[in-house]
Design brief:
With 176 residues, the protein is mainly α. The protein has one domain. It is built from seven helices and no strands. It is globular, with a radius of gyration of 16 Å. The N and C termini lie far apart (34 Å).
Length: 176
Amino acid sequence: MTEFTDRIAEVPGKSPIARFRPIVFLLTPLAAILFQVYIPRLVEQLAYLDLPLLVTVYFALMRRSPIIGLLLGSGIGLVQDSLSHQPLGMFGIVKTLVGYFCATVSQRFAVENSAIRFILAYFFYFFHQLMYWILLRALLGQPGDFDPRRELILGLLNAAVALPFFRLLDKLRDRG
């Protein structure tokens, strides 16, 4: 490996699993979902941010367990489904996939690196949107609106927001 890949590649046993208080696991996703549902009604431009997705990505990356990522993604997705006007279960399925794959990726890479976090937030935003569109067409037979160029640009926006948001969430870690 090169010096660059040594810094981003995970060395087994060197990077601990992040621990959070249970209240953080409960309130952070709830706040992100409420933000997603109610704030865009006041400021339309904030509808492009997907904070529940970013919370799913962050906690799945930091906990490094595919099972926890899967459960967290499905829980956040189903609560988001119940508060939105979308078909019930669509966000649950897609965020379950995102949580599982994020946690799986986190077992290989040093996810404390800002560049890795940016790339993963960008990739998983696009993956989320693509999977939602595929499921909308395949399961419900509805035409979906998926413009790859638009989604790539919105992925950059969400990844740019993810960096300071993830640093804020890093401060909520249990240090004990």
